[in-house]
Amino acid sequence: MYESGENYLETILILKNRTGQVRSIDIARELNFSKPSVSRAVSVLKESGYITMDRAGIIELTQAGKEKAEAIYERHTVLTAFLSLTAGVESKKAEEDACKIEHIISAETFAGIKTYMDRAERM
Do 50 and 77 lie in a common domain? Predict the structure, then answer.
């Protein structure tokens, strides 16, 4: 999956947790994207089996979509904390950088960072 698709899934998860339901307009507002751009992305995510949309336009993550979104969000939160803790990066910048890194980091490197952070939290 491309970075943009991962960003959409993560945004849907965050919005669902925040407000209880998600529509395309909510995604457009959250990401500051045009409605046609979001509509295209939603179509691709539906075709890929990551989301469903009912007649009222409410978007739901499928099981596969939820698993993917949660994995992306976990990378985001762990990397943000890691950058703040180890590099002393202020939280807003750490979050921005984590958003970029989360899409390119290898599973092996992320696992190592996650292990490091788990140990750091126990101390």
Answer: no
The Cα–Cα gap between 103 and 72 comes to 8
Query: The pTM is what?
Result: 0.89
Query: Per residue in 33-54, pLDDT tens?
Result: 999 999 999 999 999 999 999 9
Residue corresponding to tokens 């509509």 = 39
Kindly list the distances between the CA atom of residue 123 and the CA atoms of 48, 94, 105, 119, in Å, as whole numbers in the listed order: 42, 22, 26, 7
Q: CA-CA distance, 61 to 16, in Å (whole number)?
A: 9
Radius of gyration of the chain, Cα coordinates, nearest whole angstrom:
16
Say how many Å lie between the first and final Cα of the chain, rounded.
36
Q: Last residue of a domain, which of 62, 83, 113?
A: 62
What residue spans of the chain are helical by DSSP H? 3-19, 24-31, 35-47, 63-87, 91-101, 107-122
Task: Please state, in angstroms and rounded to a whole number, the distance separating the CA atoms of residues 94 and 88.
Answer: 9
For 28, other C-beta atoms within 10 Å of its C-beta total: 17
- Domain total of the chain: 2
| 8 A C-beta contact, residue 60 and residue 51 | yes
